[in-house]
């Protein structure tokens, strides 16, 4: 693959490109859960509907080769961003209609595939427009910019929805139902406007992106590449244990991800903490995300110093054991915002600290070989599948069990993560490169 020489500074398009990727993803897969909850859905349906939108991001390796075939990567980026902007406008308009939910879900479903295509094309522009040195140089900016997306979406937009609901439309924040439609329509109009402005910006400053050397020239060729990537993946030694690790490492997090915010906003009478959207956005989208970023930084330094093989089980403990903070809060129902914030930050910090081990394992053990990018995407897709499945059933389980029993169940769900991590294979040496057995298992 040959990187094209960028005609403009990457600082003009890398930060905005990755911010836009994250903004769309978080709005579709995380913020929608809060919106559904506000609109009066029970926890089961709210978690299920938002989790199903992860499917497109899970299966995106299946259609990635086809995106390479036509026009330029920039073309797909711009088309996707315009469609997302128009789609969010459509969602805001549809919410004013009676019996809007079926149309709303169809739009969300379509936009999730557009968002997955945006991810593929944006990553393609980055990889093919910058050489290896520049990729390394801007990697930190890329990661930081992506993480600004959740701050704006899960923090700012959720906060603003609550502020508008109370201060502009003068509704009771504790009452969930149709009154929330007005504030959420404004949120989607705002996100749509921001998305379209970024599309215009990228039309001016984003490079086209070079074509990869193995770019398929036809649908048949793309299908052959896709099939060969799967064949070589399953020829790798220990692949089923790797897949088990990819699916189970964050199992308990999948059960906690949707229910944690629901627990925050549900009234005390239902076993929740009774917070409003403003406090939820502030705690999760600001303090919680800051804790994730700090934990990720320190986790990366820890792995770099000690090596992944020596630290992976410790990282698994960091991801899973601090989930007990939600069980403690469910038992004692603290009213102090400082204590609630501390509980969320502890869980998020250790999640960030441990989650780096998952990504590094995929890069070093699952991905190496003929189709490194595709195999890495397959691993993250398995992780997404876990999040989709656990998220889809988490709300129904919580309603059946109640919060205290459910959070006990979340702690029990950490056990498969420990088992999968303990038996995760290491066939490729971290320092010396690929193990001979691994390279033989992946034909060139």
Automatic annotation (TrEMBL):
<dbReference type="GO" id="GO:0022857">
    <property type="term" value="F:transmembrane transporter activity"/>
</dbReference>
<feature type="transmembrane region" description="Helical">
    <location>
        <begin position="12"/>
        <end position="34"/>
    </location>
</feature>
<feature type="transmembrane region" description="Helical">
    <location>
        <begin position="243"/>
        <end position="264"/>
    </location>
</feature>
<feature type="transmembrane region" description="Helical">
    <location>
        <begin position="339"/>
        <end position="363"/>
    </location>
</feature>
<feature type="transmembrane region" description="Helical">
    <location>
        <begin position="403"/>
        <end position="428"/>
    </location>
</feature>
<dbReference type="Pfam" id="PF07690">
    <property type="entry name" value="MFS_1"/>
</dbReference>
<dbReference type="InterPro" id="IPR004752">
    <property type="entry name" value="AmpG_permease/AT-1"/>
</dbReference>
<keyword id="KW-0813">Transport</keyword>
<protein>
    <submittedName>
        <fullName>MFS transporter</fullName>
    </submittedName>
</protein>
<feature type="transmembrane region" description="Helical">
    <location>
        <begin position="46"/>
        <end position="63"/>
    </location>
</feature>
<keyword id="KW-0812">Transmembrane</keyword>
<feature type="transmembrane region" description="Helical">
    <location>
        <begin position="311"/>
        <end position="333"/>
    </location>
</feature>
<dbReference type="InterPro" id="IPR020846">
    <property type="entry name" value="MFS_dom"/>
</dbReference>
<feature type="transmembrane region" description="Helical">
    <location>
        <begin position="284"/>
        <end position="304"/>
    </location>
</feature>
<feature type="domain" description="Major facilitator superfamily (MFS) profile">
    <location>
        <begin position="10"/>
        <end position="428"/>
    </location>
</feature>
<keyword id="KW-0472">Membrane</keyword>
<dbReference type="InterPro" id="IPR036259">
    <property type="entry name" value="MFS_trans_sf"/>
</dbReference>
<feature type="transmembrane region" description="Helical">
    <location>
        <begin position="143"/>
        <end position="164"/>
    </location>
</feature>
<dbReference type="InterPro" id="IPR011701">
    <property type="entry name" value="MFS"/>
</dbReference>
<feature type="transmembrane region" description="Helical">
    <location>
        <begin position="184"/>
        <end position="201"/>
    </location>
</feature>
<dbReference type="GO" id="GO:0016020">
    <property type="term" value="C:membrane"/>
</dbReference>
<feature type="transmembrane region" description="Helical">
    <location>
        <begin position="375"/>
        <end position="397"/>
    </location>
</feature>
<feature type="transmembrane region" description="Helical">
    <location>
        <begin position="75"/>
        <end position="97"/>
    </location>
</feature>
<keyword id="KW-1133">Transmembrane helix</keyword>
<feature type="transmembrane region" description="Helical">
    <location>
        <begin position="103"/>
        <end position="122"/>
    </location>
</feature>
